[in-house]
Here is the input.
Amino acid sequence: MTETNATSTEASSGDQRQDQDRETTQRDDHDRRTMVRERYGEIAGGEDEGEGEDRDEAAAETETENENEDDCCGPTCCDGDAPDTTPAPADADAQSLELGYEPDDLEDAPDGANLGLGCGNPVAISNLEPGETVLDLGSGGGFDCFLAAREVAPGGRVIGVDMTPAMLERARENAAETDPDLEDVDVDLEFRLGEIEHLPVADETVDVIISNCVVNLSPDKPQVLAEAFRTLRPGGRLSISDLVATGPLPAAVREDPDLVSACVGGAATVEEMAGWLEAAGFQDVSITVEGEWESEYDGEDRPIVSARIEARKPDETVDD
Ligand SMILES: C[S@@+](CC[C@H](N)C(=O)[O-])C[C@H]1O[C@@H](n2cnc3c(N)ncnc32)[C@H](O)[C@@H]1O
Here is the structure.
């Protein structure tokens, strides 16, 4: 074999290995999203949310909504004892009060919107103003979206995105219940089916991104943050609540499917999260620990905390 042939054979086997690695990662990511979707489908009170038709429906709806963008105007998920079914409303409300929501928040949101799945209060930290457009990543039953709608009235808009069809159905039913109230205060509220790694939202159309205990569930957090950056207007802000790790998590925790879908196994470290936000282009990155999170597994403490994660897209994007 000539030297040139040997080099090109080595290069092509390197390419093959890279292709195989990429395929393995894509398959792992897909399996993880399927597992998470099944879990939250059960919590939403739906049937099995397996990948098949539902996944296709999510992808198709994401594509259609992208094309039509111009047309459209107690126990929690987040601990090891997370329920597999809808938590009792009283438990969800008690947990939300502990996280800093006000009794009025619970009164104002439609029944069934609060599933007690959050780990913070992103609406409270996002300083929303009337007229702003808000995007909620992983909107669940819609609790934070309804509260955000109250803040951006009049003239504002709130979009919730979730990949679990049963969650979306629940949020849309809640929205239908509250529709006349929203019309009175002049706010657009809609829930879109889609993955936060591929947001069904046009470029630079959002003022504020909120999210509550969702980014940790994504197998590709840098991609989520890149998508958040894409959809924000220059000068727009990101104010999210999530669980993060103050130190590396053991592989046994990171790889445990129950702990991943309970919002713990996939928690990024504070340093990772800050690095990904900066790599996506965000400025003024700030990650503030709000409190330790119940995190005992196998009798050992794990360094999991709830945090508020804030950042801003620069006013002008500098072209190279
Ligand atoms: C822990 S719950 C939080 C729900 C809501 N933010 C709240 O505070 O009640 C996580 C939600 O995120 C959704 N989700 C998880 N991973 C997602 C992804 N990659 N893309 C879109 N939605 C996702 C789930 O379907 C679920 O509704």
Q: What stands out?
A: The chain is about 45% helix and 20% strand. The pocket of S-adenosylmethionine is lined by residues 33, 36, 40, 77, 115, 117-118, 138-141, 143-144, 162-164, 167, 195-197, 212-214, 217-218, 263 (CB under 6 Å). The two ends are 44 Å apart (CA to CA). The domain at 3-312 is CATH 3.40.50.150 (Rossmann fold).
